[in-house]
Structure formats: C-alpha cells, structure tokens
Amino acid sequence: MTQQSPMDLALSLAQEAASRGEAPVGAVVMEGATILAAERNRMKALNDPTAHAEMLAIRTALANRGTGRLDGCDLYVTLEPCAMCAGAIAHVRLRRVYFAAEDPKAGAVENGIRLFEQPTCHHRPEVIGGLGASRSEAMLRDFFKALRGDSG
Fold first, then answer.
1. pTM
2. 25 in Cβ contact with 7 (< 8 Å)
3. pLDDT, tens digit (0-9, with 9 covering 90-100), for 64-89
4. How many helices and strands, by DSSP H and E, does the chain display?
5. Is 54 a known active-site residue?
6. Which residues does residue 129 pair with via DSSP β-bridges, in sequence order?
C-alpha cells in the first residue's frame, strides 16, 4: 500500500473541512518524510478567524518540533495562503510552500500583496503552485456554490 502524498492528505483534510461546514482548506507540514502536522480549517468550530489550516498546522508543527522555527520544513496547502498565513510562513522560516489552487481574491503569495516579494519580507520560501489545483478548485467551487444555494 502506497503512502498518501502530503498534498493528497491536505486535500482529504480540505474535504473533511467542507463536510463540517468549513471552507475546504487543508494543510500539512513535513520535515523530510515525517508529518509534523496535518490540519484543516476550523474557524467556525473554534470561533476563531485565525484558525486557518495553515496557522493550525504551523502551531502544531512548532509544538511537535519543540522549536520556534520550521526551517528545513515544507508546507503543503490546498489554497494559496492569505496575508496572515504568508506572514506566519515567513516568521517560522518554512523552506518551501506547495499550494494547490490560486486565490485571486485573498491570496498573498502569487496574487494580492505578494508578501514574499516585498523588500520588507525577511524570509522568502520557495513557492510551488498548482499541485493538485484542479481537485482543490472543484472542492472550493462546489462548497461556495452550495453555500450560496446555487442549483446549477
């Protein structure tokens, strides 16, 4: 049996978030082949607007690693990080960020403020977008369509 890829795990967490009424976003932090954290959006469940999948995964990974940094670690997330999450990514010094779907409205990596390209950004991870994009985009589209009550 083959092990699920980190992005596949993030996508399954996104699906779990959607099934619980949360925006379908999942995030996984890896240190080499070790999963340090696997989280999904829980903003509604925790009544916390900062409970994005990335923020929860970063917090869990820091606790599991026992350090204040995640240098040498990679983040896999199903949606382009927002400004809050991109700021946290820079602060913990993640090595690499893989994201699935772009977020033209709230994304801050390849859209919007492009945080990592700003001269004031003290750490710039390598960014690889589009991994699992079609699955993530379909999940997001279906979730928000159902939320609006669109039938077709």
1. 0.95
2. no
3. 999 999 999 999 999 999 999 999 99
4. 5, 5
5. yes
6. 99
